[in-house]
Design a protein that fits this description.
A seven-stranded parallel beta sheet has the order 3-2-1-4-5-6-7. A three-stranded parallel beta sheet has the order 8-9-10, sandwiched between helices. A three-stranded parallel beta sheet has the order 11-12-13, sandwiched between helices. The chain has helices at 15-26, 65-68, 72-77, 115-118, 130-148, 158-168, 209-219, 232-238, 251-260, 274-281, 294-297, 312-321, 329-337, 341-364; strands at residues 3-7, 31-34, 50-52, 86-91, 105-110, 152-155, 173-174, 197-200, 223-226, 243-247, 264-266, 286-289, 304-307. The protein is α/β, with parallel strands linked by helices. The relative contact order is 0.11. It folds into two domains: 3-178 and 341-364, Rossmann fold; 188-337, Rossmann fold (3-Layer(aba) Sandwich). The two termini are 20 Å apart. The chain contains 14 helices and 13 strands.
């Protein structure tokens, strides 16, 4: 088979790009297509052949990706996939909108239907002005047409599968994203817990770092935050002295903080949420908002706790009742192994093989 893999953009290495890397490992000879590619920031794909759209040539495209969003539908539609038997798109945005010939099977691994289009109450980043709302309306119409071009959807969680059904009226398989449990794999005897809690994530509104900071301001307990983003200065002004900002940490620093924290605080509504599973792999329980992907990974009383109102008061109440000694290292590790890269590779390859076979049978009828 000639296989192509399509991704929205490759200008940072975040959660979606970690998943893409594991898909590429399954299909190492596949060509990669994306809208914008910054090889200096995404060195993990240096050995792969990466094709880009016309957006790559526009000034400041790599730095001002958000401005390029209205142009991405056209950019992806202009890509030529006529020589491929199978195309796998990895998308939260426009990559699923590629156009393929009838004999080409297109399987889309959907991290979520685009949040700022379909869930503006959750993700307000693109709903802050009349112009952006108008553009969003046009993009929603295109997004429905783009979803109709996909032959099969795979959702990255049951939460996402429900959204795919709601917004696109399509069924989907569910395959959870991979977590590198071989890297996040401390020995039980080497773990020394500190007195701090940990937040990991981008500093954007829907991640709710401000909620965590407000709660820990009142508790007076140390909270460490790993991440950067447009809200960083605002969050630093909100924080008291017990709140520590560690910036964009290396994998090693993240690992050290994950395994030494009393618990990881996860206050956002997520599609899946890799951070809670990384925490469990390090023997650290999770205190998470009880909506979305966290409800599929956190087992209350065994691998963490859920708070049911997205407020500082609800988080404070849960932390006051939280007792770290109640959570066993073995239970946390066992739960994380359910989402290992090996499990992902097995589930993904077998599902893709089945869907591709089904598609070919339908084409032969």
């Amino acid at each position: 088979m000639n296989i192509a893999i399509v991704h929205d953009w490759l200008s940072e290495f975040a959660g979606a790009e970690k998943v893409l890397l594991e898909i590429v490992k399954i299909y190492p000879d596949a060509d990669i297509y994306t809208s914008i590619y910054d090889p200096k920031k995404v060195t993990q794909f240096a050995k792969n052949k990466v094709y880009t759209t016309y957006l790559q040539k526009l000034p400041l495209a790599k730095k001002l990706r958000s401005i390029m969003i209205p142009l991405m539908p056209l950019a992806f539609e202009q890509l030529d996939f006529s020589s491929y038997d199978l195309v796998i798109s990895s998308s939260t945005s426009a990559a699923k909108g590629i156009i393929t010939r009838p004999s080409t099977c297109h399987i889309s691994y959907c991290h979520t239907p685009t949040r700022y289009l379909w869930m503006p109450a959750m993700d307000k980043r693109a709903s802050t002005s009349w112009l952006r709302r108008k553009v969003n309306h046009t993009l929603r119409i295109w997004d429905i047409a783009a979803a109709a071009r996909v032959d099969y959807f795979i959702g990255n969680s049951k939460t996402v599968a429900e959204r795919i059904q709601k917004f696109y009226r399509r069924g989907s398989e569910v395959i959870y994203p991979p977590v590198d449990t071989s890297f996040y794999n401390p020995k039980k005897e080497d773990i020394k817990k500190g007195n701090h809690y940990l937040f990991v994530g981008r500093f954007v509104p829907y991640k709710k770092a401000d909620l965590a900071i407000e709660a820990f301001n009142k508790l007076g307990i140390e909270l460490r935050l790993i991440g950067t983003g447009p809200e960083e200065e605002k969050l630093k002004q909100l924080a008291k002295d017990n709140i520590k900002f560690l910036g964009r940490a290396s994998d090693t620093v993240l690992f050290d903080n994950l395994k030494s924290a009393k618990a990881v605080i996860f206050p956002s509504e997520e599609d899946f949420g890799i951070v809670p599973v990384e925490a469990m792999a390090c023997g650290t329980p999770v205190i998470a908002y009880g909506v979305g992907g966290a409800t599929e990974t956190v087992i209350p009383g065994k691998t963490g706790e859920l708070f049911m109102q997205q407020t500082p008061e609800a988080l404070i109440e849960t932390i006051k009742k939280f007792e770290p000694s109640n959570y066993k290292f073995e239970d946390l590790r066992a739960r994380s192994e359910e989402y290992s890269t090996q499990v992902f590779a097995k589930n993904f390859s077998s599902t893709v093989d089945k869907l591709y076979s089904d598609y070919k049978k339908q084409m032969d009828l």
